[in-house]
Design brief:
8-stranded mixed sheet, about 375 residues, globular, alpha/beta
Length: about 375
């Protein structure tokens, strides 16, 4: 499908307020939005409180782009101990695992004061419930931008408002950090994510990078598959994350676990997802430029090094949904889920359903919707 570039600007939201509630000590309001049209990524960021904050913080953020300094977004202050950074999902006698990827949910986007529950956020939560009901996943993987920024220091309250929504789905879940997942105290956020019910998040002492071992009764002594969850912060995968990946791969080599099939999840796409896309040839949807941020093309060789990673799944670009392949690794866009994010009138909001065969190591992926339907490019 042809690349269309920048989308039309979004109109200013106009609405009326009703029924005050309270969450985490922050005033909340329900807003009925009357306008919901598309904006481009540039306008989306410019229209939010993150834009000013990013400018003010730019010098400090630049300094994080190295193997020796952890990222600002998702930085841990807790010392890692043996066993940190690893979760386990036990599939019993099942020979496959079904993963529902939700991405770019953007709860509280456009809300300037307090925690405002909008029609868009209510629609997103309803979609979560319907997607789980229709597709019955074994694991939910949220690939970044779960909430939207940290205006007035409310990021932690935003997170604590969202966690019960994930818990009520009654499915094991995990998440990675996106550029809009902003907090004053990231360690407090790590701790909240790890402590939540049904959570497999284990990045609290490892700066948001962790893995999930999938185990079965037929192979109790070793994982049947690995899921790598990486913190692409707001730069993309840079030296810090690649150093973590190399260390992790070396540890798995030493224990004889490298051969297990693996999938990787992170928020920001790779440069290769831009360079490998071919207009009118690559199946799928590409309606905006690939925002790979500072990822320079160095990530893919590291991801492909051990030949165990079958595919990488990302988000970030709300109106792209396609896959490309290089070095025997598929690079797959998830379908943007959150109604509060831009692009809903261009590309229908949904999710990605991933099924991994734990015997053959093969996987399939398809875009799914809250009404139980699905879509796959021709």
């Amino acid at each position: 499908m042809e690349l269309h570039g920048v989308l039309p600007p979004q109109e200013v939201y106009r609405g009326w307020m009703s029924s005050r509630v309270n969450h985490s000590g922050v005033e909340s309001t329900v807003i009925r939005r009357t306008v919901n049209v598309m904006i481009s990524r540039r306008e989306f960021v410019r229209a939010t409180p993150l834009a000013l904050g990013s400018l003010l913080a730019a010098p400090a953020l630049e300094a994080t782009d190295s193997a020796g300094t952890p990222p600002v977004i998702g930085r841990s202050t807790r010392r890692a101990r043996p066993g940190d950074g690893v979760a386990t999902l036990d599939m019993g006698r099942r020979q496959g695992v079904r993963i529902l990827q939700l991405t770019d949910n953007h709860f509280f986007c456009g809300v300037e004061k307090g925690l405002t529950i909008t029609n868009d956020d209510q629609a997103t939560e309803r979609d979560w419930q319907a997607l789980v009901r229709h597709f019955r996943p074994d694991l939910i993987m949220a690939t970044g931008d779960l909430w939207h920024d940290n205006p007035g220091g409310r990021g932690q309250a935003s997170l604590e408002h969202i966690l019960p929504k994930l818990e009520r789905l009654e499915v094991p879940w995990a998440t990675c950090w996106g550029n809009h997942d902003q907090l004053d105290d990231f360690q407090r956020g790590h701790d909240s994510l790890e402590a939540a019910r049904n959570s497999l998040y284990r990045g609290g002492a490892t700066h948001g990078d962790y893995r999930i071992e999938i185990r079965t009764a037929s192979a109790p002594g070793r994982p049947a598959a690995q899921l790598g969850v990486m913190n692409s912060n707001q730069f993309g995968l840079t030296d810090w994350q690649l150093a973590w990946l190399r260390r992790t791969q070396a540890e798995l080599d030493a224990s004889g676990q490298t051969a297990a099939p693996a999938l990787a999840f992170f928020h920001i796409p790779l440069l290769d997802q831009k360079t490998l896309y071919r207009p009118r040839q690559t199946p799928g949807l590409c309606h905006e430029e690939v925002c790979f941020e500072k990822e320079s093309g160095r990530a893919l060789p590291v991801l492909a090094e051990r030949r165990s990673i079958r595919a990488c799944f990302c988000g970030h670009d709300h109106v792209n949904d396609y896959a490309v392949r290089a070095r025997d690794v598929d690079l797959v866009y998830g379908r943007a889920t959150g109604h509060a994010g831009y692009g809903g009138e261009k590309v229908r909001k949904g999710a990605k359903l991933i099924e991994l065969d734990l015997v053959r190591g093969a996987y399939t992926q398809i875009t799914v919707f809250a009404d139980g339907t699905h879509w796959k490019p021709a």
